[in-house]
């Protein structure tokens, strides 16, 4: 089975876990609980209501480096945000997270394995080269070529490489994709695969560090660990962006992001620690808050060993953890307990019939007894320390609550590299459970649900019935069939307690009130979507 597993780098979540600096000193969970009860009084000496930027300029603070501008690169949502403004894709997802046309004006799915896209006329790269169906075909031939993209893509293009059989340029404005299987979400997947000028690349230009832009912005300068500067692209076919110059400033530590927001050095800043937001709420120049992201915290069981191969034990732990208390304190009420599934509202297949597991210590103890562990047991719980917002505090809270029902948790913090190595390895060498927060690049059902199939590298929680349903999902030929199977999958995952469901991670932000910008749950922060406040 191992030979068929997808590589760990298949999804952009890997880049995301680098967003929060792991070296920051953090208080223990008990210390933090005592602190959150004390009203914070923060005196901000900078009272200006203006933004960091000059007129018609915008500065956005992002939490991790943006190392690659080539759309083939495995990437974070912040890197995709920059690339999507330099390069156009066939489709796009707008601020309201709706699929909309971009390079393609329309598309159809005439057969389960056929998709036909009609291209927009007159679109060019900034050097004047037109974008035609042949341009699109050449790009997807490259995406499909494992040898051409292996060094920069990992296997994040694995679904394209295994599922796209061929691409045909029918004429200059029509391109046809023939797939190896039905793929009801195919048009949405293409939103994360922009088209670049491969002729420009063939002339010796490096697409990882430069761009011949077709989008609303073109590249001015590229320093992946410091700042990426863009300016309005005069060759863009559409409405010019509201801001003529944009700087994406890389702020890798929570402290740096907080300081930049307090000093009004940035107009928009993302991924602030929940406890840091209190320091900004008194600033009248800022809009501070969070949206529920498409990324979900959960604890993955290792079902290759007892007692985690027992359904009653897995259910017991779900009832033993008071998720509402954790979200209300450590996450400052910015998110809420998961509805007993890994999908939440941003996903098309979110199962509204499912409810959160209630906090019920008596029921947890009853299930522990019926599962053969009346006196509790010991378990190891690994996590990448500092890798996700609030994770060090969250795991301490979870461990304390499991201890209340007799489950003695040995917390095993790891560096990110060691954590990944452990999960890529054999289940027999992995810990009993681990904490993770995953999300696919496209906020689509299949992208999230495939993490929990046996074929996925990290997954040590194996359920043959889930695998059977997931295989059927990949063959769904209609949206109706797709929706039906997704509902069955989420119901199965809930009833079988494949995971200990926690809560969606909040996407925190501070925005200067001089800027009008909506933060979408997928974390795509595009300057093109912003405008001066009216």
Any overview of this molecule?
By secondary structure, the chain is an alpha+beta fold. The protein folds into 2 domains: 250 residues, Dipeptide-binding Protein, Domain 3 (Dipeptide-binding Protein, domain 3, Roll); 155 residues, Alpha-Beta Complex (Dipeptide-binding Protein, domain 1). Helices cover 28% and strands 22% of the residues. The strands form 4 sheets. Strands 8-9-10-1-11-16-12-15-13-14 form a 10-stranded mixed β-sheet, sandwiched between helices. A 4-stranded antiparallel β-sheet has the order 4-5-7-6.
Distance between the termini: 57 Å
Any idea what the CATH superfamily of the largest domain is called? Dipeptide-binding Protein, Domain 3
Kindly give the count of domains: 2
Tally of alpha and pi helices:
17
Query: How are strands sequenced across the largest beta sheet?
Result: 8-9-10-1-11-16-12-15-13-14
Mean of residue pLDDT values: 88
The amount of beta strand, in percent, is: 15-25%
Uncertain spans, ≥5 residues at pLDDT below 50?
Answer: 1-53
CATH fold name of the largest domain, please? Dipeptide-binding Protein, domain 3
Largest sheet: 10 strands, mixed
CATH architectural designation of the largest domain: Roll
User: What general form does the structure show?
Assistant: globular
DSSP, total strands? 18
Q: Please write the CATH class name of the largest domain.
A: Alpha Beta
Helix content: 25-40%
Evaluate the radius of gyration.
Answer: 23 Å
Structural class: alpha+beta
Subcellular location: Periplasm
Keywords: Membrane, Transmembrane, Transmembrane helix
Transmembrane segments: 32-53
Domain Solute-binding protein family: 98-454
